[in-house]
Specification:
The chain is mainly beta. It folds into three domains: 108 residues, Immunoglobulin-like, CATH 2.60.40; 89 residues, Immunoglobulin-like, CATH 2.60.40.1120; 106 residues, Sandwich (Immunoglobulin-like), CATH 2.60.40.1120. The protein is 8% helix and 45% strand. Strands 1, 4, 6, 8 and 9 form a five-stranded mixed β-sheet that branches. A hairpin with a 3-residue loop joins strand 11 and strand 12.
Length: 321
């Protein structure tokens, strides 16, 4: 025990002497944030480094900021202006010992989005629907439709940056109903965009259903994650196909999703992951099927088998709808 205490004391002494002989030489970053239209400095803009609450600054009345005592290394930097501006500028900086990095930024006047979620047959409001609006490099926000079916996006988190390519994704709280997705929503500088109404028909049988079983013993596979992808729609800019829903197989290995738009679809089938599986093993157990043609007013049956034993699925024996 005495030897351990002596070694610990010696270690502390070495660390102390090292820090005194070779002190850290800090660096810093500074700059100015301006309005893109007027060129004037913007006060009250929050500057974040690495997304950490203890590494931030705020611009003064002239739009200037400085973050000091930064350890040498690479940092991400982002700016969150106050309403009505939007956050767009972000990047990376390399802090060197004893040096100051100049990083200037600009912000645009943003816009907002307003819309309604309704039942398609009665046109009555559909409250409690999750709304997610986003555009690449232009911002995103989430909201829930109110009792009157309305939603309003782009204030609490700063206004959206202008873009003609916003997507609005609506998910109702009923798990077997497909998403509704609006593409190419235009947001203009300083304006409020009125999005088209989002309509849900809970009685529309148009969709996909089926059973998923083990190819080794024919037993149902529980909790398989089903992704429904629309091959007729792509997100702007990213060019990825639009996701229209995700669900899980129940205790019978059964899944279904209603209220899909007629069209051509891809189905991803992803089993629950066991801790001992490698990524390649997980991929080998997964499966996808396409093209699946969905016609109006009908449910298209898509059964499938995964090459995985019933016993290998975590949670089998428990119903997971």
């Amino acid at each position: 025990m005495k030897t351990i205490k002596i070694m610990a004391f010696a270690f502390i002494v070495v660390i102390t002497l090292t820090s005194r002989l070779f002190p850290i030489i800090y660096g810093s970053v500074s700059g100015i944030v301006t309005d893109e239209d007027t060129g004037k400095g913007l006060p009250g803009v929050r500057v974040n480094l690495n997304g950490r609450s203890n590494l931030y600054s705020e611009t003064d009345k002239e739009g200037k900021f400085a973050v000091k005592l930064l350890k040498p290394g690479k940092y991400s930097i982002s700016f969150t202006p106050l309403f009505p501006h939007c956050c767009l500028t972000q990047g990376e900086i390399d802090i060197e010992p004893g040096k100051n990095v100049i990083f200037n930024a600009s912000a645009k006047i943003g816009g907002t989005i307003r819309g309604n979620v309704l039942y398609s047959d009665t046109k009555k409001p559909f409250p409690g629907v999750s709304i997610n609006a986003f555009a690449r490099f232009a911002g995103m926000a989430k909201e829930t439709s109110k009792d009157d079916g309305s939603y309003f996006l782009g204030v609490d988190n700063g206004r959206f940056c202008p873009s003609p390519d916003y997507c609005i994704e609506a998910k109702c709280n009923i798990p077997n109903v497909a998403y509704k997705v609006l593409l190419g929503v235009i947001v203009e500088k300083g304006k409020e965009t009125k999005a088209e109404d989002i309509l849900f028909d809970l009685n529309d049988p148009t969709g996909i259903d089926g059973f998923i079983t083990s190819s080794l013993n024919g037993k149902p596979l529980i909790g398989v994650h089903i992704y429904i992808i629309n091959l007729d729609k792509r997100y702007p800019i990213t060019d990825r196909f639009v996701r229209m829903g995700d669900i899980y197989t129940n205790s019978d290995g059964y899944y279904y999703i209603n209220n899909l738009e007629p069209g051509t679809y891809l189905i991803h089938m992803l089993p629950k992951i066991k801790a001992e599986w490698s990524f390649n093993e997980f991929l080998s157990y997964s499966k996808e099927k396409s093209p699946i043609v969905v016609t109006s007013g009908k449910k298209t049956r898509v059964n499938s088998q995964l090459d995985i034993p019933y016993s290998a699925i975590p949670g089998n024996g428990e119903e997971n709808e």
